[in-house]
Amino acid sequence: MSTDAPSAGRGGDLRNYAVVTGAYWADTIADGAIRVLVLFYFYELGYSPLQVASLFLFYEVFGIVTNLVGGYAAARWGLKSTLLGGLSFQLVALAMLALAPESWLVVAYVMVAQALSGIAKDLTKMSSKSAVKLVVPQDAPGALYRWVAILTGSKNALKGVGFFLGGLLLTLVGFQTALGCIAGLVACGLAGTLIFMRGDLGTPDATARFRQMLSNDRSVNLLAGARVFLFASRDVWFVVGLPVYLRTVMGWSFWQVGIFMAVWTIGYGIVQAAAPRFVKDPDGRTAAKLAFALAALPAAIAIAMGTSIDPDVVIVAGLIAFGVVFAMNSAVHSYLILAYAEGSKVAMNVGFYYMANAFGRLSGTVLSGALYQWQGLQACLWGSAIMVLAAGALSLLLPGNPTSARIYAAPARTRT
User: Fold this and answer.
1) What's the pLDDT tens digit per position in 397-411?
2) Does residue 211 lie within any of the structural domains?
């Protein structure tokens, strides 16, 4: 498999891709930090796990809407417009939380701010993922898998940095001052994009119609369905259940919980970026096999928690193993959506796919709070196992050979 780098003749595309990626990294760090800050600040105020989960409800709901609308906007006006919009929304969300009087920091107000943050994150993600298709050369098919793995893996590693930064800033300077620091990082990303980006990153298509966002491609639809269950299987324990369990049952400090979540996410990102070294020539069957292997891990953790084994060892070792397999499965998904996407509709197909991703996160977030409040972390883990099995079942229906789904049908300069 070739992994040739894009040719020098496409340096303009590479410059814009680097700008998009840098802005996405800044927003990703901010997104991870905000999540930890909001989670622990409101849990310490006495909110229940389900109430804490509700703070992220609009974040995920608007992620679903944003990916649909954002894919259409990128096709119609170019990816630069969606990237700048995403960074601007993130600044507004941070300002709402950093500058508001403490009496305003109630559930409804924070949900609105989180909604804007969710819009920001999904606009920047859709822009950067779509850009990969624009810069990978036609004559180096292996590069598509490698480039998307690097981008996605680095993003998740930096989200882990955001978790660490959020926990550190909450400890050192408090909730609102920490948010102000994060806003400065996002402002740098916005300024860099305005100064260094050339053109619109892709050719705007004035004929694009919103109804085209709903994919009629079977492969894209099946992969989107598998993505719903895959990401629900992670967030059902990761968003509320795990951090609350570590803080309240295991007695870990903010600092320790933040470090664990950060290290787990960074490691997950590193594995994801390295996935092409371990998983060669992926297709639908690859995604199915990884999903079925993954399903055994949360079930094993839940069973082991009921034994005499040290729960710290069970949780840490088990979730490290989960992270490794999950990262490879996610990397294969991220490659396949670009492999299946039509060249002229790449932003729309990617937007539709990440709409499904957002729906999975929404489902996992709500269930994380509800299952933990009902039966604790073990219930969250059993829910995770069931969801991964569903992802595997859908993946069995994906094409065995990605070349049958127009992997490289796009011209060198696609319309987005």
Assistant:
1) 998 766 544 433 333
2) yes
Distance CA 191, CA 209 (A): 31
Q: Is the dihedral of CA 168, 173, 176, 181 positive or negative?
A: negative
CA pair distance 23, 183, nearest whole angstrom: 13
Place of tokens 């609350």: 244
Rounded Cα–Cα distance for residues 20 and 276 (Å):
23
Structural domain includes residue 245:
yes
Q: Containing H/E element for 154?
A: helix 142-172
Could you tell me the CA-to-CA distances from 24 to 122, 129, 138 in Å, in that order? Answer: 10, 10, 25
Amino acid letter, residue 149: A
Measured from the Cβ of residue 54, the count of other Cβ atoms closer than 10 Å reads: 20
Question: Are the CB atoms for 404 and 336 separated by under 8 Å?
Answer: no
- Distances in Å between the Cα of 21 and the Cα atoms of 148, 197, 265 are 11, 11, 18
Contact 403, 281 (CB under 8 A): no
DSSP secondary structure code for residue 27 in this structure: H
Contact 94, 179 (CB under 8 A): yes
The two structure tokens encoding residue 391: 């992802």
State the chain's mean pLDDT as an integer. Answer: 81
In a domain, 275, yes or no: yes
Q: How many domains does the structure of the chain reveal?
A: 1
Report residue 332's pLDDT band, with 50, 70 and 90 as the boundaries: very high
Per residue in 164-193, pLDDT (tens digit) is 888 888 888 888 899 999 999 999 999 998
Sequence-distant (6+) residues with CB within 8 A of 416 are 74, 75, 78, 79, 130, 134, 201, 202, 203, 204, 205, 346, 347
Confidence class of residue 344 from pLDDT cuts 50, 70 and 90?
Answer: low
> What's the rounded Cα separation, in Å, for the pair 254 and 75?
42
Provide the CATH number for the domain around residue 339. Answer: 1.20.1250.20
**Cβ-contact 213, 354 below 8 angstroms:** no
Which pLDDT value is given to residue 142? 67
Q: Which amino acid is at 215?
A: S
What's the domain range around 279? 9-405
